[in-house]
Design goal:
Elements lengths: L6 H9 L6 H14 L2 E3 H6 L5 H10 L3 E10 L5 E12 L13
Helix pairs in contact: 2-4
């Protein structure tokens, strides 16, 4: 049976998925990176990723070239947060890359 869902529909379904497994979160973070050139820890947490550092590290282990810089962020409540990581995705490995579990 042919799958008639478009990539946009698949991305939309992925981003509204209630599955909170690490695998789904990694896929969701990659989908967000397709739409946004960079995301910081607070932005990822606002998107309901509780442990963005762990998920980005797991993506690095799977061959994704994710870089991070530290920045200072003032939140809407006026608080200054120093050393917040801003993540950039610059390389996506080929689709045939094996999905391996990494103990962190």
């Amino acid at each position: 049976m042919k799958d008639d869902t478009t990539p946009v529909q698949k991305n939309s379904a992925l981003l509204t998925d209630t599955d909170t497994s690490a695998s789904t979160q990694r896929d969701q973070i990659l989908t967000h990176f397709k739409n946004t050139p960079s995301l910081n820890t607070l932005e990822l947490r606002a998107l309901v990723f509780v442990s963005p550092a762990s998920r980005t590290l797991e993506l690095k282990y799977r061959g994704h070239n994710i870089k991070a810089n530290k920045e200072n962020v003032i939140t809407p409540d006026g608080m200054l947060h120093r050393g917040i990581a801003r993540y950039y995705l610059s390389y996506v490995p080929p689709a045939n890359n094996q999905d391996i579990e990494v103990a962190v």
